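Continued from yesterday's entry.
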Amino acid sequence: MARQVHAEELAKHKGKSVADVLKESLDLYVNQRTFNNTRDLGGFLEETDLRTLADRCKKDVSADFHLLEQMILRRHQIVHQADVPRGALEADDISKQDVETWATAASEFVVTVVSLLAVRSVGTKLSAD
């Protein structure tokens, strides 16, 4: 994730705090990132040190990975196979309960990641002060 930054690129951020520049950089990076499975999510957590922070905060960031994996696989089936499994003649039904379960798992994952980012941000500010 680390890369060399040139002075001209830094000049664009004159007047901004280091924390703001880092946040903008992370936002840009995350918004360009795709996750095809929970291994990709886990890799992202490792790359950003959020898994280590989660362990220190006693948060199980991967508690619902099995549900997220089901959701991602179903999304792939919908997108790449028009929701018709190979060898089948018609689309699979999807239950309201499955969608609600996946939505809850995804929301809880995002809330956990955002709370870890907030903890890290506060820790960065405290160490900078």
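--- second protein ---
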Amino acid sequence: MKVSRFGGFSNKDSACLSPKLLRNIPGTEPQSVSCASLNKSGTLARRRKNKIMKRLNAVVRLTFWLVMMFAIVFLVRAESSDKRISTPRTKSAPPIRIFDQNGQPGQPAVNGVPSPTGVSVPVTVGGGNGFQFVPDTVNISVGDTVEWTWVNNGHSVTSGTCDAADSQFCSPDDMNCAAGILSNQGTIYTHTFAQAGIYHYFCDAHCTIGMNGVVNVSGGCTPSGWSAGPDLNPPNGAVRLAGVYFQANGKFYAMGGRSSDAAGSEFTNPFEYDPGTNSWTTKSASYPDTHTNNMACGVLSDAGTPYIYCVGGSQVTVTGTFDRVFRYDPVMDVITPVAAPWPGGLGMVLPGGFTVFNNKLYILGGFDTITNAGQGTNQIWEFTPPTTWVQKAAVLPVPLGYLPTTTIGSLIYTGGGSDITAGALTDTTNSFVYNPMADTIGTIAPIPRATGETRHGRLTSMA
């Protein structure tokens, strides 16, 4: 065999020829590696390459995800930092401070005289889970002050039980308590407690989910409960007045009345008692008329401003009554007429018991001074400022005049009252409870002693 027949093989060209054939070809040496061995070596090489590539791919993927995670963390931190820089630290509402009647800042609206040694106890509003007063129970002494500070938005401090404001105190300024005004973060409201008792309060927006608080006030009155104060209108004194506590300035007002049963003895100006100075002052404002005996008076708010509203009245030795309504602004010392005469007066009826609930004045019963020579009435009337009168469907179980009446929680209670027949007045033990929201009335345990021609008084949750 000639080499030329195979086209001239070289060692390189003989890689895939069998060893036996190679021995027959001149110029070629026997090969020690077969074609199968070469194929196996190639396969191993490819496998090693694939493994290397897979490892490189894994390293690349791991590196990619590490870079991505680092980038995300960096961007989030950068965004958060940017927000802290670019967003001003503003509050949703400016802090609210209480001003006194002279416009001086830093004086809390009080319901009495703060003790010289009184302390201030802090409470956060919206603390805890965001819907709590922290602490929700405070134990203080008479003359101490509670300072509520808002750490969340949309809360109120409203005295009373859930959704039944009793108007003893409320944020932001002790006015229009029944409205349940909500305040925001940064608000500060203070109230000084001058009488011992248990004071419940709530957040108007969240009391149903448990945002309620209690202030327990200890101390106060001596065991007898009374101590001598300065005389009113000495030496003659006064009768047939209506006493009104004005919470916005912590003072007590004696409205109307007279100094005797003689003609022309009616007072023409309100009297103001200041617990801080333990003194009486005759104010400058003048009543619009002299029918100022036996008026029904109470504090009501109109457009957020509290006033003392007075209804009806009589004049000694003069037949008939007045139905007019006026209001007194103790801060400005101004009396203005209200264009809403009492429909139940009819020029002859004196108001019976009266009290305030939910920024409404209620009159229960009355004294018809003319019909049958004088008789009691059983009507119940409701007045809502500025000018709305409504006669309620419910009536007193028996006609009565001069009945002591007060609001406790969401109910109106009476104790005693005068039975009036042919002008003769007889004290009774009749006692009732009226629900102004349901417009229903029922009896309660009779007052132990027959009572009439007097007024009510309330100490916290007791009449």
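The mean pLDDT is 81. The first helix runs from residue 19 to 23. Will compare against the first tomorrow.
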